[in-house]
Amino acid sequence: xxxxxxxxxxxxxxxxxxxxxxxVPLTVLRQLxxxxxxxxxxxxxxxxxxxxPGLTIADAFGGLGLGATETMIVHxxxxxxxxxxxxxxxxxxxxxxIGAAGDTTQRQRxxxxxxSGQSIVSVGSLEPGGGHSLSDIQCAxxxxxxxxxxxxxxxxxAYAARAQTALILARVxxxxxxxxxxxxxxxxxxxxxxxxxxxxxxxVYQVTLHEVDVPLEAALKGGQxxxxxxxxxxxxxxxxxxxxxxxxxxxxxxxxxxxxxxREAFGKPIGSFQAIAHSxxxxxxxxxxxxxxxxxxxxxxxxxxxxxxxAAIAKLQACEMxxxxxxxxxxxxxxxxxxxxxxxxxxxxRAKQLQLLHWDSDYLEERIIxxxxxxxxxxxx
Amino acid sequence: xxFDFSADEKRFIEEVRAFLREQALLPDAADVMAPNxxxxxxxxxxxxxxxxxxxxxxxxxxxxxxxxEYGGSEKSGIYEYLLNEELARVGxxxxxxxxxxxxxxxxxxxxxxxxxxxxxxxxxxxxxxxxGYSEPGAGSDLASLKLKAERSGEGWLFNxxxxxxxxxxxxxxxxxxxxxxxxxxxxxxxSLFLVPMHEKGITVSAIHTLGEHRTNHVFLDNVWVHDDYRxxxxxxxxxxxxxxxxxxxxxxYPFSPLEAKLEQMWKHIKTTQRNGQRLTAVPEIxxxxxxxxxxxxxxxxxxxxxxxxxxxxxxxxxxxxxxxxYTTALSQxxxxxxxxxxxxxxxxxxxxxxxxxxxxxxxLYRSSALETIGxxxxxxxxxxxxxxxxxxxxxx
Lengths: 381, 396
Ligand SMILES: Cc1cc2nc3c(=O)[nH]c(=O)nc-3n(C[C@H](O)[C@H](O)[C@H](O)COP(=O)(O)OP(=O)(O)OC[C@H]3O[C@@H](n4cnc5c(N)ncnc54)[C@H](O)[C@@H]3O)c2cc1C
Description:
The complex is a heterodimer. Chain A is an alpha+beta fold. Chain A has 3 domains: 109 residues, Acyl-CoA dehydrogenase/oxidase, N-terminal domain (Butyryl-Coa Dehydrogenase, subunit A, domain 1); 105 residues, Butyryl-CoA Dehydrogenase, subunit A, domain 2 (Beta Barrel); 153 residues, Butyryl-CoA Dehydrogenase, subunit A, domain 3, CATH 1.20.140.10. In chain A, 51% of the residues lie in helices and 14% in strands. Chain B folds into 3 domains: 89 residues, Acyl-CoA dehydrogenase/oxidase, N-terminal domain (Butyryl-Coa Dehydrogenase, subunit A, domain 1), CATH 1.10.540; 105 residues, Butyryl-CoA Dehydrogenase, subunit A, domain 2; 137 residues, Up-down Bundle (Butyryl-CoA Dehydrogenase, subunit A, domain 3). The interface between A and B is large, with 45 and 45 residues. Flavin-adenine dinucleotide sits at the interface of chains B and A.
């Protein structure tokens, strides 16, 4: 066993942390929250200069070709900074799907532009009233003479006002997996996008598709279902999301620990009361466990092992841990913790959003129990 | 043994409900009754709210437990409790600081001048108060408050700051705790005063919260008030503050909002399908709901225990701490469970037109974070239970 990061990996962490500190300190984040496009252009430019949008895109397409461990490192730092950017949706999720389900032309068309940060590609999977299962994808698509016609509503589509294109999951048949992926130009006739005010005040949009015509070449995998690629992309993405939770929780916890040392009540630091000390110790245990779970998941993925189970467990545990950590952070701060001016609320809102927005606990628990019951057959829902 | 309310108490509940049904039909009702926003109506000043409170006064609902000589009806405190339950159920402003803390303290300890000046106005809902207790350095450890009151001519000169003074931005009068003897032990050098909120030298600045409510930071710079506005005896402030907390045990923990939230959860669960299955048929949701039903019933029992003891003339300090500790944590669990049930949709803010239940749960998830902090944190409640209830030798 060797749990030490390589020198390059450590440098990647340091660089990411510095970029976050320089471009998106919490003072800047506060100005970005609830606004459009919802991320700092300077930060995104700095990420582009560092090659970050192409982090996991193969070097043949102009990316850095790095793995899950590096993605985890970068996203742990993003999480620590609460940094908003299209990196997850475009460079992790969409890039993975296009890489796995795109043909050569599609990969040539999209990946280099995404790697260079020229193009941001969003992903539309969730629908109003629906959960995370593919069965809840109701967006309807029909074949036309020249391509496809798409109708339906997606919501929580990240950065849709800035992304030129969104990869839309749409249903072509009644079987669970009859879901295809279409690269939809968000400027097409019939597309309307609307900012959705939300818990974390992240730039997410409702995208309404009304008889939108999409050319043939916009369908990934030649219009064949991409359910398997979608799952693989999500499991891969879970590692980055769980890493964000770990980074955010570490920062919130550090704030609470620091506050417990300096805030006094009854003539002593509140950290001298066991009620406070023990609750911070409990959180430390949770964080340590999750940090290791996420690393294990990244390692397994990079080794080419079956990592789905590890990734699901990491996301489930890390998001619940983050949520509890953020609550404890508010509680330890007392009244100040409940104000908008203090920082704990930023973490509190991000934690719940991270838990519910992508493969929530309900869905993950189902995946975990299925995998535990049947280690050999991968997935059925 | 009888868990039921008496016939007269039940009649009173029906009377209040009828009154509230009537009020709900008025054009300004939405400003007064906001069941989706717990206490919104109480934390901001609207013409509707003032009108509503005057209407309550006309019905004789303000000061029910006060002695007759001060215009009260000498009813048991249980009626005020029952009234607050019904008000809380529809999200209307509760009877609170004026009738309870200020009024009852003045009745017991105030000079004739203060009684004459304030009691009628309180009873007629013509006056709003802000409580000036907490300070930046004195929250859980309230007795260490520092705001200075120094003798100056026939009155007192105040210097210092207060924080978390909810409603200070619209209140008329300030119920202020100040240090009058810096030499004495911390509990023994505090006095209470009534100060006009608009007095020269008072600056009120807004603090905005995660619950989208406003509370305030208040600065006092050479604020002068005549000695007539000192409440009760000099340096007895801590005793009065603690005593007033005891009056409040009757009224501050309405249980009906929890019950109403549970009802609203049921409504969603009964009318929603997931993967072609009704939510009422999903085993995990059934179990979660069963747990909440049982826990809400437990909260109700903890609260009945407080009310019963108080109605017998007891001072249920430990029971009240138990009730607050359990209920506030339950309220957070309930909000979290509902967020989980709603999934991503639950993240939509109330300003999104299709947010489930008008964004109630997303808001509640945020706003309920205060419950385990305000009015004595959960840690402080546990200390009270351990020290006063169990006699444990706590060292802090
Ligand atoms: C929105 C809001 C509205 C409010 N309204 C009013 C109002 O109108 N008027 C008013 O006067 N006050 C008001 N308060 C103040 C409220 O009562 C205090 O915030 C509360 O008592 C906690 O005090 P604090 O914020 O100073 O936290 P602290 O006392 O600093 O507590 C910080 C942490 O230390 C813990 N702690 C402290 N002492 C101990 C101990 N001995 N053992 C174990 N743990 C301990 C606490 O539990 C908490 O977790 C309000 C507060 C808020 C946030």
